[in-house]
Specification:
heterodimer, A: mainly alpha, B: alpha/beta, 6-stranded mixed beta sheet, 4-stranded antiparallel beta sheet, 13 strands, 32% strand
Chain lengths: 262, 264
């Protein structure tokens, strides 16, 4: 299992490096924009915008303080989009991607149980998601140093940990579908529906009345970044993602050892 | 190795139909058929990659099931002609990874002798290597742990003639140390060369289980001879074609005897 875990990390080293640098840059840039967004003139401009547009940019009142700004502008809107793409690429690559190339077959020909293979790869996903979340946090920290502001470290730790939980949960669902079915069309389809559907529900749910009732179906609904930044942590949200991760992993460990591999 | 009434159906297509055979310890058995005959599907079920639609597979007297197939893999070496190796690794890293999975090392004498024989480019990334070189690395991986059972699926299809000879030597040596070898191929000559027994599969059905020597006697060989003077085919040969070519005559015939004598 440890062999498979290390192999997966090695295989994904450029993916990890690329995404880490990208997310670090995103965290840094978004934080460095903060002084421009915290002035009074931009408040007036945004107050005059229609409600549907405000749903896309977040609540303007949150921008006045750095934690609220980071919560609403980085962790609540932009980061979920990027980490959804990361989750989809990572989980599809490790499951149906490797199976289509015949590499999964080469792996299961070895004297290693399918459960151990599945667990080793999943563990690598958890580590990659952690590195990606840490990179974002480091980017934010560099940005804070550059704009010479101060931020309670617990804010960034909470947001970083929740991001890790979110991205791991999303990647685990896609991983479970990919490894349990081996079907690229199903895996990609479900991944895109979950990611795009969640994004649409979360961004337009506040502005479009009839969507509000369905907001709970969004995967990002359980990641209220602004509240997390303000130290309002709902343990139910943590439980939601934890249950998704456990169920996804269990499904993988049950179904993958019992199905045909191409 | 024992297979009982094995069938595999994909949707409405039957890839393998009611196949039964067994392979004794130490035997070298060839599994011959055209592309799409069902060779790879049978091997996939043997190794527990795919579940039979019907029937059973036994390896080392234990029934093969998908979740437990890995237990027998410890005693099996496996390679295919188009084996997909891990592109991000070098050949050396791949072989170390395989060895660690078997709980062994690449520092053994056997490993060194295999590397000397095949001379693969172990320090280059697998993604940059040709199919033939990757094939050599896959064969080293299959033989390096000196497994009790070696399962090969069209193993020499990417090898040049010299490497093909090295490979056949390897099979003979494995057989001499008591290993069982089960190899699929569509090259009858290669199979007859090293196997003691041949299974023929056609359209998913096992049509023949025959000693290799007997098959060789039955099969005959297609011979094309170009001579300056006109000659006739040897006695007992089945004439296929004769024609005038630049500088002489070309004669094609099928013959079964080992010795060949042409008459003017």
């Amino acid at each position: 299992m440890f062999n498979v875990f290390l192999k997966t990390l090695r295989d994904k080293r450029y993916f990890i490096l690329g995404w880490s640098l990208g997310l670090l840059f995103l965290g840094f840039m978004m934080t460095s924009f903060y002084p421009s967004f915290s002035g009074g003139q931009i408040d007036q401009l945004l107050d005059s915008l229609p409600p549907a547009f405000q749903g896309l940019v977040g609540n303007v009142q949150d921008w006045r303080e750095l934690p609220g700004y980071l919560g609403s502008q980085l962790f609540d809107i932009r980061l979920p989009i990027f980490i959804s793409i990361l989750s989809i690429l990572l989980a599809i690559g490790l499951t149906v991607g490797e199976e289509d190339k015949g590499q999964l077959r080469t792996l299961i020909a070895l004297p290693v149980s399918r459960r151990k293979i599945a667990f080793g790869k999943w563990l690598a996903i958890v580590v990659i998601c952690l590195v990606a979340s840490l990179a974002t946090v480091v980017g934010v920290e560099i940005g804070i140093a550059v704009i010479q502001k101060t931020l309670d470290q617990s804010v960034i730790v909470r947001l970083g940990l929740f991001t890790w939980l979110l991205v791991t949960a999303l990647a685990t669902i896609i991983y479970a579908i990919g490894l349990s079915t081996g079907k690229r069309a199903i895996t990609t389809g479900v991944a895109i529906i979950v990611a795009i559907g969640s994004f649409l529900l979360s961004t337009f749910g506040q502005a479009v009345d009839w969507l509000a009732d369905y907001e709970k179906f969004s995967f990002f609904y359980y990641f209220p970044a602004v509240n997390i930044a303000k130290d309002i942590v709902d343990w139910g949200n943590i439980l939601f993602y934890a249950v998704i991760i456990v169920l996804g992993l269990l499904a993988t460990l049950i179904f993958f050892p019992r199905r045909d591999v191409k | 190795m024992e297979i009982k009434n094995l069938s595999k159906t994909y949707g409405g297509f039957t890839a393998v139909r009611n196949a039964s055979f067994s392979v004794k310890n130490g035997e070298v058995v060839g599994f011959v058929g055209l592309n799409g005959a069902g060779k790879s599907t049978t091997i996939n079920m043997l190794l527990g990659f795919q579940k039979p639609s019907q029937g059973e597979v036994y390896l080392f007297n234990k029934k093969v099931t998908l979740p437990r197939a890995h237990k027998s893999h410890k005693r099996i070496g496996f390679a295919t002609g188009d084996m997909s190796l891990f592109d991000g690794m070098t050949g050396a890293q791949y072989l170390r990874f395989v060895a660690r999975s078997y709980g062994s090392s690449t520092k053994t004498e056997n490993f060194k002798s295999l590397v000397e024989r095949f001379d693969p480019q172990l320090n280059k990334k697998l993604s940059t290597l040709s199919r033939g070189i990757k094939q050599k690395i896959a064969l080293i991986a299959a033989f390096m742990t000196q497994p009790d059972l070696i399962i090969l699926d069209e193993p020499s299809s990417g090898l040049d003639p010299l490497m093909q000879q090295h490979f056949l030597e390897l099979v003979r040596e494995a057989s001499q140390r008591g290993a069982t070898v089960f190899m699929s191929s569509h090259y009858l000559n290669e199979v007859i060369d090293v196997c003691s027994r041949v299974l023929l599969i056609k359209n998913g059905e096992l049509v023949k289980d025959i000693p290799a020597a007997e098959l060789e006697a039955q099969a005959g060989k297609l011979v094309r001879v170009v001579t300056k003077r006109k000659v006739t085919a040897p006695k007992g040969a089945e004439l296929v074609d004769t024609q005038a070519v630049t500088g002489g005559y070309a004669l094609q015939f099928i013959y079964k005897d080992k010795s060949l004598r042409l008459q003017e």
